[in-house]
TrEMBL record:
Molecular-function GO terms, alphabetical: transmembrane transporter activity
Lineage: Bacteria, Pseudomonadati, Pseudomonadota, Alphaproteobacteria, Rhodobacterales
Similarity comment text for this entry: Belongs to the TRAP transporter small permease family.
Pfam families tied to this protein: DctQ
Localization: Cell inner membrane
Matches recorded under InterPro entries: DctQ, TRAP_DctQ
Domain Tripartite ATP-independent periplasmic transporters DctQ component, first and last residues per copy: 26-160
GO terms under cellular component: plasma membrane
Annotated protein name in UniProt: TRAP transporter small permease protein
Function recorded in the entry: Part of the tripartite ATP-independent periplasmic (TRAP) transport system.
Membrane disposition: Multi-pass membrane protein
């Protein structure tokens, strides 16, 4: 059980190592857009959309890592004031009753849109933009999968009586 959890953790950690470069790329591209527009009077919809694509990929694909390192949003009305055993029960209930069903629902309801986007290879958002909206929409099920996998890894550790990796 713990080997599976370790594999999922490694997957999300490895993905995070790649995705952190997306933030730097976004800053550099946006800087280039500003310089191009205001200094040279040059503008490109394709380049502007590349920032949107990088932003979407960064935040959607880093969700599993965020869950892994416990930096997600937590409503801790009760959580902060209870014992370790109660926190463990709250975590298990949260993953089983809230997080996993929410990811299943989001994946289920977004799938027709993603499937149709791939079927027609959905084109750019704007004229002259990146011709890969189907890739952008594919981030939704990828997000659901990465969050669900990380949730399962955390559940495996909780059920084994371990704390986070």
């Amino acid at each position: 059980m713990l080997r599976v959890a370790d594999f999922i953790d490694a997957l999300n950690r490895g993905l995070a190592l790649v995705l952190r470069w997306f933030a730097i790329a976004m800053v550099l591209i946006q800087f280039g857009i500003v310089i191009g527009r205001y200094v040279f009077g040059v503008n490109s919809i394709w380049v502007q959309e590349s920032v949107l694509y990088l932003h979407g990929a960064l935040f959607m694909l880093a969700g599993g890592y965020t869950l892994l390192v416990d930096r997600h949003v937590r409503v801790d009305i009760f959580y902060a004031k209870v014992s370790g055993a109660a926190r463990r029960r709250i975590d298990i209930a949260g993953h089983v009753l809230l997080l996993l069903p929410a990811m299943a629902a989001l994946g289920w309801w977004s799938w027709p849109s993603v499937r149709n986007a791939w079927k027609i290879l959905e084109g750019p958002i704007s004229v002259g933009g990146i011709e890969a909206v189907f890739l952008l929409k594919s981030l939704i099920p990828a997000f659901c999968l990465l969050i669900a996998l990380q949730s399962i890894a955390i559940l495996l550790r909780l059920l084994a009586g371990k704390t986070r990796a």
